[in-house]
Design brief:
With about 425 residues, this protein is α/β, with parallel strands linked by helices. It has helices at about 15-35, 35-40, 65-75, 110-125, 145-155, 170-180, 190-200, 220-235, 345-355, 395-410, and strands spanning about 90-95, 105, 130-135, 160, 185, 215, 235-245, 245-255, 260, 265-270, 285-295, 305-315, 325-330, 335-340, 340-345, 360-370, 375, 380-385, 410-415, 435. Helix content is about 30%, strand content about 25%. Helix 7 (about 190-200) runs parallel beside helix 8. Bound molecules: zinc ion. Zinc ion binds next to loops.
Length: about 425
C-alpha cells in the first residue's frame, strides 16, 4: 500500500459513509439557507434526519434536463447556482452531444477542489511528480478535459505539456519525440490514431517512443481497445472517468486495474435500481444507475445528480489499499437497448466484435430502426469484414451472430459490409455506434 494515498481513501467503508453523510448534511443546510432552488427541493426533507445513505431517498433526484431547464430559465448558470456570478473564475461546458450544453462555474475554492481531485486521479493511475505528461484532449473547446486537466496535472507536480488534440498528430508526435514524456492523456480513439500515425510522422513505431502510461478518458469503449493500445504504444493503459457537472475526472484506475472514486470526502456516490430508483447495496456484482452528489461545491452544487451511467461494483477489497469499491461503467442509461427483453449496451457489442477471432476490422454500427430503446425484433448490425477474408461472408455472419448470442444473449441480424465503409472518427470526436433510421 502506498503511503501517498490520502487517509480518507483508505477508511473503513462504514466510517467513510458516515463522513460523507455528515458532509452532505452540512452542505444541504448551507444550500437551504442560500439557494432558493435547493430550498424548494429540500422542502419535503428533514435534513437532520439523514443519518445513513439510504435516507437520501427523501431528496429529489436531479436530472440533466432539470439542469438544462434551470439554465434556460435563469442564465447563465441556472437557478441551482449559488453565490454570485462575480465569484466565478472559470466557466466550462458539457460537450453538448445530446442537446444544448450545460455550463458549470467554479469559484477559487471549487477550482482548488477540482485540482486536488484531478491530481489524485492521476496519482492513482501511477503518475508522479517529476514525470512529464503530454496533454492531447481537446484544449480549445471549453470543456473540462482541456484546461482543468492541465491544472490538475500541474497540481500533482507533473511537468505538463499542454498541446491539446487540435494541432494534430504531426505536432503531438514530434513533441513526444523531442521531449520524451512518460505519460499521455487522450481519448482512446485519439490515442489509437496517434499511435498508428507514429511511423509515418517520426519514422518509428509508437512502441519505441517514451510513453509508458496513457490515461484514457472522455469517451466509452476503452476496454475494446485496451490491448491494442497497450501493444501499439508498449504502455500501460489506465482509465480515468469524469463528468462536467461533478469534476473533470474523479475516478482513476489503480495499478491493480480497478477504477476507484478518489476524494470520497468531496463526492458521494449512490447506486440506484434503474427502474425503481431505490438505493442498492455496495456489494460485488451490484449493477445499477450511478448518482453523484458533490459535498463541498460552492457555485454549481449537484445534489443527487443522475449521470445516466450504468455501473457494476466489481471489487470491494483492492490490494492498492483504497477502500472505495471499484466500478465498471457499462454505458449510459439512454444508450441501453432492450432487445427481446435482454439489456445490451453498444459498448458490450463492441467488446465482442473487437475481440472476435473472425476476420473483422472491428468497426461496426447498430442500425436503429425502432423508436425508443426497446425492440421485439432482432438487433440490426452493420459489420465490416477484413479485405478478402478466407471465410465467405455468410459464414462470418453466422459465426458472429452465434458469438453475440452466446456471450450477450442478444439476437442479431447482421449485414456484412466491405472494409472502410464506416467513417473513421476524427481526432477527439466522440463516436456514436448507433445509426438512427
Ligand atoms: Zn485499487
Amino acid at each position: 500500500m502506498s503511503s501517498d494515498i490520502p487517509a480518507v481513501e483508505t477508511l473503513q467503508w462504514e466510517e467513510l459513509r458516515e463522513i460523507q453523510i455528515e458532509n452532505f448534511r452540512e452542505q444541504a443546510r448551507r444550500l437551504e439557507r442560500t439557494c432558493e432552488y435547493y430550498r424548494k427541493r429540500f422542502a419535503d426533507t428533514d435534513i437532520d434526519a439523514i443519518r445513513k445513505p439510504e435516507d437520501l431517498s427523501s431528496v429529489k433526484l436531479l436530472s440533466k434536463d432539470d439542469i438544462r431547464q434551470s439554465q434556460q430559465e435563469s442564465p447563465p448558470l441556472g437557478w441551482h447556482a449559488c453565490g454570485s456570478f462575480e465569484e466565478v473564475i472559470q466557466t466550462q461546458a458539457s460537450s453538448g452531444t445530446t442537446g444544448r450544453p450545460t455550463y458549470v462555474g467554479v469559484s477559487p475554492d471549487d477550482q482548488q477542489q477540482w485540482n486536488e481531485t484531478l491530481a489524485e486521479v492521476f496519482r492513482t493511475t501511477g503518475m508522479s511528480p517529476g514525470e512529464s505528461c503530454i496533454h492531447a484532449f481537446g484544449l480549445s473547446k471549453g470543456f473540462v478535459g482541456g484546461i482543468p486537466v492541465v491544472q490538475g496535472l500541474e497540481k500533482l507536480g507533473v511537468n505538463v505539456i499542454p498541446i491539446g488534440a487540435e494541432p494534430g498528430a504531426k505536432r503531438l508526435l514530434n513533441v513526444i519525440d523531442h521531449l520524451n514524456p512518460e505519460n499521455l492523456v487522450a481519448t482512446p480513439n485519439f490515442a489509437r490514431y496517434l499511435g498508428k500515425q507514429s511511423p509515418k510522422v517520426v519514422g518509428k513505431p509508437a512502441s519505441e517512443l517514451s510513453i509508458e502510461r496513457i490515461a484514457c478518458g472522455g469517451e466509452p469503449g476503452l476496454n475494446a481497445m485496451r490491448e491494442e493500445l497497450a501493444e501499439l504504444w508498449d504502455a500501460r493503459i489506465m482509465q480515468i472517468m469524469g463528468a462536467t457537472e461533478i469534476a473533470p475526472a474523479y475516478f482513476g484506475e489503480c495499478e491493480y486495474q480497478n477504477l476507484h472514486l478518489v476524494r470520497p470526502d468531496l463526492y458521494l456516490p449512490e447506486i440506484l435500481d434503474p427502474n425503481t430508483k431505490e438505493p442498492l447495496q455496495w456489494e460485488e456484482g451490484t449493477t445499477g444507475e450511478l448518482v453523484m452528489t458533490t459535498l463541498a461545491r460552492e457555485i454549481t452544487p449537484m445534489i443527487r445528480y443522475q449521470l445516466g451511467d450504468i455501473v457494476t461494483v466489481d471489487e470491494t477489497d483492492c490490494k492498492c489499499g483504497r477502500t472505495m469499491p471499484s466500478l465498471t461503467c457499462h454505458g449510459r442509461t439512454d444508450e441501453m437497448l432492450i432487445v427481446r427483453g435482454v439489456n445490451v449496451f453498444p459498448s458490450a457489442l463492441q467488446d465482442v466484435v473487437t475481440n472476435s477471432t473472425l476476420p473483422l476490422t472491428g468497426h461496426f454500427r447498430i442500425r436503429k430502426t425502432f423508436e425508443g430503446h426497446s425492440t421485439e425484433n432482432r438487433l440490426e448490425l452493420l459489420v465490416e469484414h477484413k479485405p478478402n477474408p478466407e471465410l465467405a461472408s455468410d459464414e462470418i455472419r453466422e459465426s458472429l451472430s452465434n458469438e453475440l448470442q452466446s456471450q450477450l444473449g442478444v439476437s442479431t441480424e447482421i449485414d456484412m459490409i466491405p472494409p472502410q465503409t464506416i467513417t473513421r472518427p476524427d481526432a477527439d470526436e466522440k463516436v456514436s455506434l448507433i445509426i438512427e433510421e
